[in-house]
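Predicting holo structure, nicotinamide-adenine-dinucleotide bound.
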Amino acid sequence: MNMKLSRTLSTLLDDPRLFRQYAYVDGKWTHGDGGREEAVIDPATGEVIGHIPWLEADQIRGAVDAAEAAFVHWRALRADERCERLLAWYDLLQANREDLATLMTLEQGKPLPDARGEVEYGASFVRWFAEEGKRTFGETIPSHIPNAALGTIKEPVGIAALITPWNFPLAMITRKAAAAMAAGCPVIVKPAGETPFSALALAELAERAGIPAGVFNVVLGEPAEVSKILCFDDRVKALSFTGSTRVGRLLLEQSANTVKRVSLELGGNAPFIVGPDMDPKEAAFAAVSAKFQTAGQDCLAADRILVHESIHDEFVAHFAERMAALTVGNGLESEIDLGPLIHAQAVEKAAAIVDDALAKGATLVAGDQRQAPGPNFFMPTLLTGVTHDMKIWHEESFAPVAGITAYADDDQVIEMANDTEYGLAAYIYTHDIRRIWKIMRALEFGMVSVNSVKMTGPPVPFGGVKHSGLGREGGITGIDEYLETKYYCLGALGSVSGS
Ligand code: NAD
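Done. Tokens:
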């Protein structure tokens, strides 16, 4: 490990034992047998934060062995016993919030207040599912068979492999793992190589919370290699993935042979629709907030801002004014709104998306990259006159690049909004209830937020349609991704009066 940063970390963290540079399998901190390792970089400074081992194929299969053994005991616990352990984990996440946020900012780049918010958000799923695990009710079915009792019980599906992205290094794990573990399933987490330390800190706290060995494992390695082993292993019964649509498709294909339960939370390309009745300033400020969180590296980012032509120019002026006030810098410093992008390729992609739009006739209102405070930073950029033929219309920019388009009427904006392969989230800003209802029903998206930027949290079913994914996370249905329904028929019971 880089000695300079090691020293920095020990001063930055109250509890340096939360910083682990090993995989975590079967309750043990593990080196890679082959000696392969990968450096983890602070995107704000380019410095090496630490190293993680890449496990060999046998070690990945060893994690499945461990989970298989742990499943026997974990599923046999009563739901309230699993709840107690998950709540202990929740308490530890809360108690170590500051250290978890610091680690996250170091590896992901997001500003510390946002990282603290993600720890809260991630922990809230642990508490939610700890409780939901006690409510995995079956049903009693009125019998059509003489002298029989019919019903269902819910049983854990088995080992769940969880593959997660770098933009929300902690919450994308807990949203899956807490649901699976509450249902009685052991998990094998494969975090993104860019942001493994949040996952490893979660493992350290899971161990302290009394989660038994083999129930929460973190494997590290070459992504395609690890995923293939987990997808092809018949003992892994569920695969839950959050990440790009490209990789999601690949994993769905690889899971076909073993007919796994697959949940996919994939890319988004959210439209942000502003009606003619809106106050342009209020709507513009909301749009800035929906666009620039996590420096635009957010599946819910407002990627296509569609504004009624009657208020377009005013909206653009307010948007530009608000955007100009955003501060860009190292997320560990105070008063920073946007941290760096995750790596140099992300910056190149952002620049290419802007160049493509300008070459096809968009107007650059603001966004001077010469002001960027470092190589991985991208200054907030505003384009107007964005059209269907531009990359920014169809691709997730995953960057702080906002594109605004004017529209004439509700039918046109519905067509524009649905003109994408993605269907994760959409925003509508208007106070006209008939317009809200018409547009909300016509949008081909899994989540529609009206007059609110914030839409996520434990009680709601999070997920997309079209190429944005399969299944839902959170809410009362999130745990179903990890449960099987067993139907029973108890026959020859004799007649029971009143049945
Ligand atoms: P990614 O698809 O590149 O990586 C996601 C995970 O897959 C990582 O763990 C990565 O190591 C692994 N991976 C990469 N290549 C692989 C391969 N060939 N085979 C198997 N595994 C592989 O995505 P990312 O860049 O880390 O994250 C950004 C994407 O995640 C965006 O598309 C974003 O919209 C999406 N996302 C979706 C949600 C949601 O809830 N729908 C939430 C956050 C992020």
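The chain has 15 helices and 20 strands.
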